[in-house]
C-alpha cells in the first residue's frame, strides 16, 4: 500500500530571497538533522542572467534503524538524489527528491515548494508532499514502513526550526535583507548596491530604522516568533498556524490526512464541504483512516442533505410540548471552555413525550441540540482563543425509575444514539452522570452496546452524592456555575420536566403519520442501481430550449450518468411478478424505461457524454434542450466500492442481495425543469 503525505501551508513572515539564503546553509550538511551526514553536488546549472539556478545533489543519510536490519540489508547509509530548481524571476524553489538506495524495492518520492505568499509579497509559503511504496524488503516491509514514517515525520517537525535557526544566524551576521533579482540590463549600479548593503547592515543594528525603511519582513505589530494565522492564504489550502489556532495540535500525519480528505471533498462536492472541525471529527472517530472516514462522512453528508439538517435551526420550531416538558438545556461552560448541556433525565417523562410527539419529533429535537452544540463550539473557540470542538453533557438521574425503561421509550433512545453516533462523532468531550440510582445498571446494559468505545471512555458515573466529593463535579465545572438543583448557587433555566398530560397523547396512527411526514418531506428521491438494471426517470419537454437541472449524490458504488432523447414516449414499466422492469427495495426504487428492443441511434439518442461518478461524489449540472420530446435520465451501474468502513452487513443490503443481486449502487437525486430565461436569471 502506498503511504502519502501532504503538508499544510507553512508561512514564513520573511521575503523569499532571505528564506533562500537561510535554506542554502543547510548544505553540504546540517547539524540540526543528525541523520543528514553529507551531500555532494552531482550537477549544477546557472543561467547567464542569474535568474535560474538548478542543482542536483546526492545526499547521504544515516537512518535510525536496528543494526540487524542494516546488516540484513547490507548497507550502513541510504542515498537520496535531490534536485533543486530555483527561479529568482518567478521567486519559486521546487525540490524533487527520490531514493537511490533500494530503488527496486522501495520507492520514495518527495516534492517541496517555496513560493511567495499570494497576498503579501514579503512573506514566503512552503508546502511539501511525499509518497512511500514498499514493494518488498526481505520480509521486513511493515518494520521498514514504520521506520520510514517515523524518520520522515520527525524531520518534518524540524523543518521550520531549521529555517528559523539559519535566519537568526544571518541576523547575527548583519544580514536581514537580500535584494530581489533584477534583469542585467537594468541591474542597479555599484553605488546602489553599496547603499543596499549599508541599509542591510543598519537594519541589523537598528531594527526601528529598518522598519521605517520598509525592510523588515515582520508584519507591524507582530513580534518575531509569535504565530498568527496568515491572512489571505488561499481558501483551498490550510495554513499551519490556522490549524494550530483553530483545530489544535496535530501530528504531521494527522495534518496530512485532514488536508487530503479536505481536497477530495473539494474536488467531489464542488466546494460545498463541511467545516474543517467537522472533517477532523470524522477522522478522529476512525483513527485517521482516510478511507473509513471518507465513507462514513459521505453517508452523513447525504443524510444531512436529504433531511435538510443544515437548516434545522432556522426552519424547524420545536412543538410546545417539548419546550415545556423536555428537561434539558445549555448552561454556561465547563473548566475547559466546552459548552455545557444539562439533562435532567430522571425528571423527564420519556413515555409521555413519546406518546405525545412520536419518536421522530424527539429525534429531530436532539438533532437541533447537536446543531446548536456545533455552533457554540465555534463561538467558544473564538472566545477562549483555543480550539474547542466538543461539549460536556451533565446528566442528572435523580428520579430515574422503571417508568423510564418503557420499551418504546428505550427504542427511541437507542435510535437517537445510533443517529447521533453516525453523524456527530467526537462531539461529546465528557459525560458526567450524577445521582445514578439502582435501576441505572439495567438501562446501561441496554444502551452501552450501541455506544462507541471512544465515547464510552468519556463517561464518568457518580452514585448518590459522590459527585460532591474529591474527583467530583468541581474538578470539571467552576463552583459558580454548578446548578442550584445540585447544591450550587447558579440558577439553572433548564425546564424541570414533569408528567406530560395524557390529554396531549396521540393515537398510534396519528404518530405514525406524523413520523412519516417529518422524514419524507424532502425534495430528494432515492434509487437503487443494479448491475444490468439501471435506474431511469422520464422528463417530457414541450418547449425547446428548456433547461433540465439535476443534483444527485452517489451514496454507494460507482455509477455512469447518461441523458437520452426520444421523440416517442417509452412504455410505462410493467408490474410483472419477477419485477424485471420495476424493483422496490429498502434502499429505494429501481425503474427501467428504455425498452430492450429499442436501438440507440434509431429509437433514441445520447445528448450528453457519459459521466462516470465515484462513490461519495455530489454532482450538479444542467442540459439545455434542443428539441421537444422525451428525455431520459439514467444512472447505470459502473463498479462497487473498493472498501467499506465496517464489516457488519446492513439490513437493506442483505435484503437487496436476496431479492435481486449483490451488485448494487445507490443514488439520491433531485431534478427540475426551468425555462431558459429563468435559468439565465438564476445564474446572474
Beta percentage is: 25-35%
**What's the helical proportion of residues?**
25-40%
Q: What summary fits the major beta sheet?
A: 8 strands, antiparallel
Rg? 32 Å
Q: If you average the pLDDT, what whole number results?
A: 83
How many helices? The count is 19
Ranges where pLDDT stays below 50 over 5 or more residues in a row are 190-233, 575-581, 642-661
Overall body shape:
globular
Class per helix and strand makeup: alpha+beta
How many strands appear in the DSSP assignment?
24
InterPro entries: CRAL-TRIO_dom, CRAL-TRIO_dom_sf, CRAL/TRIO_N_dom, CRAL/TRIO_N_dom_sf, GOLD_dom, GOLD_dom_sf, PRELI/MSF1_dom, SEC14/CRAL-TRIO_domain
Organism: Equus caballus
Domain GOLD: 520-673
Keywords: Cytoplasm, Golgi apparatus, Immunity, Innate immunity, Phosphoprotein, Signal transduction inhibitor
Structure description:
The protein is 33% helix and 26% strand. Helix 1 (16-23) packs across helix 3, helix 4 (190-205) crosses helix 5 (207-213) and helix 7 (252-268) crosses helix 8. It has 684 residues and is α+β, with helices and mostly antiparallel strands. The model is unreliable at 190-233, 575-581 and 642-661 (pLDDT under 50). It starts with a strand and ends with a helix. The strands form five sheets. Strands 1, 2, 3, 4, 5, 6, 7 and 8 form an eight-stranded antiparallel β-sheet that branches. It has a five-stranded mixed β-sheet with strand order 9-10-11-12-13, with helices on one face. It is globular.
Amino acid at each position: 500500500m502506498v503511504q502519502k503525505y501532504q503538508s499544510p501551508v507553512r508561512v514564513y513572515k520573511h521575503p523569499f530571497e532571505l528564506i533562500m539564503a537561510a535554506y542554502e546553509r543547510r548544505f553540504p550538511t546540517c547539524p540540526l538533522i543528525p541523520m543528514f551526514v553529507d551531500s555532494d553536488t552531482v550537477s549544477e546549472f546557472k543561467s547567464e542572467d542569474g535568474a535560474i539556478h538548478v542543482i542536483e545533489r546526492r545526499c547521504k543519510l544515516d537512518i535510525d534503524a536496528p543494526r540487524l536490519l542494516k546488516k540484513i540489508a547490507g548497507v550502513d547509509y541510504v542515498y537520496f538524489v535531490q534536485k533543486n530548481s530555483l527561479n529568482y524571476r518567478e521567486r519559486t524553489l521546487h525540490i524533487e527528491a527520490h531514493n537511490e538506495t533500494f530503488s527496486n524495492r522501495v520507492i520514495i518520492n518527495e516534492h517541496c515548494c517555496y513560493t511567495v505568499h499570494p497576498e503579501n509579497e514579503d512573506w514566503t509559503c512552503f508546502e511539501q508532499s511525499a509518497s512511500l511504496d514498499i514493494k518488498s524488503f526481505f520480509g521486513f516491509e511493515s518494520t521498514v514502513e514504520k521506520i520510514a514514517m517515523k524518520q520522515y515525520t520527525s524531520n518534518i517537525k524540524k523543518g521550520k526550526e531549521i529555517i528559523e535557526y539559519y535566519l537568526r544566524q544571518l541576523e547575527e551576521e548583519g544580514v536581514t535583507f537580500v535584494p530581489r533579482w533584477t534583469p542585467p540590463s537594468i541591474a542597479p549600479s555599484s553605488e546602489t548596491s553599496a547603499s543596499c548593503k549599508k541599509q542591510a547592515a543598519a537594519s541589523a543594528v537598528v531594527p526601528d530604522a529598518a522598519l521605517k525603511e520598509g525592510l523588515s519582513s515582520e508584519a507591524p505589530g507582530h513580534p518575531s516568533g509569535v504565530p498568527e494565522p496568515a491572512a489571505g492564504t488561499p481558501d483551498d489550502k490550510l495554513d499551519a498556524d490556522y490549524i494550530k489556532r483553530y483545530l489544535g495540535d496535530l501530528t504531521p500525519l494527522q495534518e496530512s490526512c485532514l488536508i487530503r480528505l479536505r481536497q477530495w471533498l473539494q474536488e467531489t462536492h464542488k466546494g460545498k464541504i463541511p467545516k474543517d472541525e467537522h472533517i477532523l471529527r470524522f477522522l478522529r472517530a476512525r483513527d485517521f483512516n482516510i478511507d473509513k472516514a471518507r465513507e462514513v462522512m459521505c453517508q452523513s453528508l447525504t443524510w444531512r442533505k436529504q433531511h435538510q439538517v443544515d437548516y434545522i435551526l432556522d426552519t424547524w420550531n420545536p412543538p410546545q410540548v417539548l419546550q415545556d416538558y423536555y428537561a434539558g438545556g445549555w448552561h454556561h461552560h465547563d473548566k475547559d471552555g466546552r459548552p455545557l448541556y444539562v439533562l435532567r433525565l430522571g425528571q423527564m417523562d420519556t413515555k409521555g413525550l413519546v406518546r405525545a410527539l412520536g419518536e421522530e419529533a424527539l429525534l429531530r429535537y436532539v438533532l437541533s441540540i447537536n446543531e446548536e452544540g456545533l455552533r457554540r463550539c465555534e463561538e467558544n473557540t473564538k472566545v477562549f482563543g483555543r480550539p474547542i470542538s466538543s461539549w460536556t453533557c451533565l446528566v442528572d438521574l435523580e428520579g430515574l425509575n422503571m417508568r423510564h425503561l418503557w420499551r418504546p421509550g428505550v427504542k427511541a433512545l437507542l435510535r437517537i444514539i445510533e443517529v447521533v453516533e453516525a453523524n456527530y462523532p467526537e462531539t461529546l468531550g465528557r459525560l458526567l452522570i450524577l445521582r445514578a440510582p439502582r435501576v441505572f445498571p439495567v438501562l446501561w446494559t441496554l444502551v452501552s452496546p450501541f455506544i462507541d468505545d471512544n465515547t464510552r471512555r468519556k463517561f464518568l458515573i457518580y452514585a448518590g452524592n459522590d459527585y460532591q466529593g474529591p474527583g467530583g463535579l468541581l474538578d470539571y465545572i467552576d463552583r459558580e456555575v454548578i446548578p442550584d438543583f445540585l447544591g450550587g448557587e447558579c440558577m439553572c433555566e433548564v425546564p424541570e420536566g414533569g408528567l406530560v398530560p395524557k390529554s396531549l397523547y396521540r393515537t398510534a396512527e396519528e404518530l405514525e403519520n406524523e413520523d412519516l411526514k417529518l422524514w419524507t418531506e424532502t425534495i430528494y428521491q432515492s434509487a437503487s442501481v443494479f448491475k444490468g438494471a439501471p435506474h431511469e426517470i422520464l422528463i417530457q419537454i414541450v418547449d425547446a430550449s428548456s433547461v433540465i437541472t439535476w443534483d444527485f449524490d452517489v451514496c454507494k458504488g460507482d455509477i455512469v450518468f447518461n441523458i437520452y432523447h426520444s421523440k416517442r414516449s417509452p412504455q410505462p414499466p410493467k408490474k410483472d411478478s419477477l419485477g424485471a422492469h420495476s424493483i422496490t427495495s429498502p434502499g429505494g426504487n429501481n425503474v427501467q424505461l428504455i425498452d430492450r428492443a429499442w436501438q440507440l441511434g434509431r429509437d433514441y439518442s445520447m445528448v450528453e457524454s457519459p459521466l462516470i461518478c465515484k462513490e461519495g461524489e455530489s454532482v450538479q449540472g444542467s442540459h439545455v434542450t434542443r428539441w421537444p420530446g422525451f428525455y431520459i435520465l439514467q444512472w447505470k451501474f459502473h463498479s462497487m466500492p473498493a472498501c467499506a468502513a465496517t464489516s457488519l452487513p446492513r439490513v437493506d443490503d442483505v435484503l437487496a442481495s436476496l431479492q435481486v443481486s449483490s451488485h448494487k449502487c445507490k443514488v439520491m437525486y433531485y431534478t427540475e425543469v426551468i425555462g431558459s430565461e429563468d435559468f439565465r436569471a438564476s445564474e446572474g
